[in-house]
Automatic annotation (TrEMBL):
<keyword id="KW-0067">ATP-binding</keyword>
<feature type="region of interest" description="Disordered">
    <location>
        <begin position="232"/>
        <end position="265"/>
    </location>
</feature>
<protein>
    <submittedName>
        <fullName>ATP-binding cassette domain-containing protein</fullName>
    </submittedName>
</protein>
<feature type="compositionally biased region" description="Low complexity">
    <location>
        <begin position="243"/>
        <end position="260"/>
    </location>
</feature>
<dbReference type="GO" id="GO:0005524">
    <property type="term" value="F:ATP binding"/>
</dbReference>
<keyword id="KW-0677">Repeat</keyword>
<dbReference type="InterPro" id="IPR003593">
    <property type="entry name" value="AAA+_ATPase"/>
</dbReference>
<keyword id="KW-0813">Transport</keyword>
<dbReference type="InterPro" id="IPR027417">
    <property type="entry name" value="P-loop_NTPase"/>
</dbReference>
<keyword id="KW-0547">Nucleotide-binding</keyword>
<dbReference type="InterPro" id="IPR003439">
    <property type="entry name" value="ABC_transporter-like_ATP-bd"/>
</dbReference>
<dbReference type="Pfam" id="PF00005">
    <property type="entry name" value="ABC_tran"/>
</dbReference>
<feature type="domain" description="ABC transporter">
    <location>
        <begin position="270"/>
        <end position="513"/>
    </location>
</feature>
<dbReference type="InterPro" id="IPR050107">
    <property type="entry name" value="ABC_carbohydrate_import_ATPase"/>
</dbReference>
<feature type="domain" description="ABC transporter">
    <location>
        <begin position="4"/>
        <end position="236"/>
    </location>
</feature>
Amino acid sequence: MTLLQVQGLTKSFGARRVLRDVSFTIDEGEIVGLVGTNGAGKSTLGDVIAGITPADAGSMTLQGHPYAPLSAFDARHLGVGVVEQLVHIDPALTVAQAVLRGTTQAGLPPRELRRQAQVLLAEVALDVDPDTPVGDLPHFVHGLVETARVLAEDTRLVVLDEVSAPLLPSEVGRLHAVAGRLSRQGRGVLYISHRLPEMLEVVDRVLVLRDGRIALDAPADRLDPVRLAAETVGEPVTPPEPRVASAPEPAAAGPTAAEEAPVRLSPRLVPSDEVVLRVRNLRVPGAVEGVDLLLRRGEVIGLTGHRSSGVREIADALSGELPAVTDELQLFGEERSLGSSADGPALELPVYRPDEDAYGVDPGETIARTMTQEAWGSLSDLRTEIARLRGVIRTVHQMDVKTLSIRTVFGALSGGDQHKLALARWMSECARDVVVLHEPTRGLDVRARRQVRRLLDEATAHGTSVVVVSVDPDELAECCDRVGIVAGGRVARWIDTGELAVDAVRDRIVEAATAAA
Ligand SMILES: Nc1ncnc2c1ncn2[C@@H]1O[C@H](COP(=O)(O)OP(=O)(O)OP(=O)(O)O)[C@@H](O)[C@H]1O
């Protein structure tokens, strides 16, 4: 039986037409995937269904009754809940208060509140103390707390907007178990994701949103990730090439990534032999028990592992955010310290995180200003300004950002488009030695992932060496030359991405990570 019927939805933001005559249905007990490029309008569609954004035209029914929510609160009351992509929960709330906020149970005595929250947290397989302040939780957990909150209400339809993006494969498996349970209870799920192989494992049907319209509405068992990626971008997609370890150019300094000419990558060049970072016996009390790392010039190494494996702590020690000790630490052959010893200047590698405080940019500032922020004060003549703005337009174009103008405010871009530009800006600004990137392709569509790969290939061709920390096996397989599987505070195994196809590397990573856990 039809749960939700959507008919002729249309939505524009100013001159930008985002949804054009969108129609589809979701049946009771059905899990429907929604995919599309960054900026295609997936969140906008989810927000219209969840009462957050009003449509310009069109209508909906829920269980056969007219459904026109006036607000998110109204939608929840009528049985539709959403876990938003960029969820923000008041950090001062406890987890129990966060899970039951806005529900009829919110006013329960603390002990009962805790008990009920615990049941819901168990449903989403989240093992946290309900008394923990939300501010103490890692960001990836917020989506699961929100999912537990949606379950607290008698929700008929749940919109999950990229909840899986920051999760490990095993955690995604648990999220899928929740979706399966909702389906067996006769509830509907609209599942938005860019992680196509995993999404196809759980959904019954897939909707592709392209150019504001439903371009495909097909059963999941008739699709595979490559075909679905092609449907998403509207053109054939070849599987990603294994990364070519391109020999870096001798000169370290170069123009900014946004301004330089494209780098032609020769096939399978030998990586540079020059070791830029040498770490021996890295220890972080209670987390890392002896890790050796060797990073060559122009090389990209990946690190992955379960939450308690020590992988985050390795990265945080390298960036100077966590106190740590080593037996040997050299950057370009010079002794460095990790802050607590006097063996040389601190290492403090620059680090990029996709979820960090809205990328440290003012969301009300224009794209042009955001991308040229550092240079703004130093502009001295019109010619320089023109060159800079051309650079911004080129980056926006190359990164396929969906906007009509570089005068659009940054905060009005889709989540993925904000991430792409923030990463491009960060890569062009930071020193070109050794950098740490957390999940550089999180929340990006297939084309944007290639663009980030190109950004990495360009940077490494100019001599940058990169440590990628990630939960996503596809991202590691696409971006890295070698991947370290971390378990029990050590690197249990290195996987060379070498001559293998990307999906074979992905399978190896998943297999090794599962075995090591
Ligand atoms: N409040 C707003 N004001 C102006 N434009 C907006 C607003 N919200 C969304 N948009 C625009 O609508 C378009 C669709 O955005 P939306 O967030 O729905 O995309 P998406 O498919 O969810 O993308 P992503 O995969 O990157 O999350 C984008 O071009 C975005 O810039």
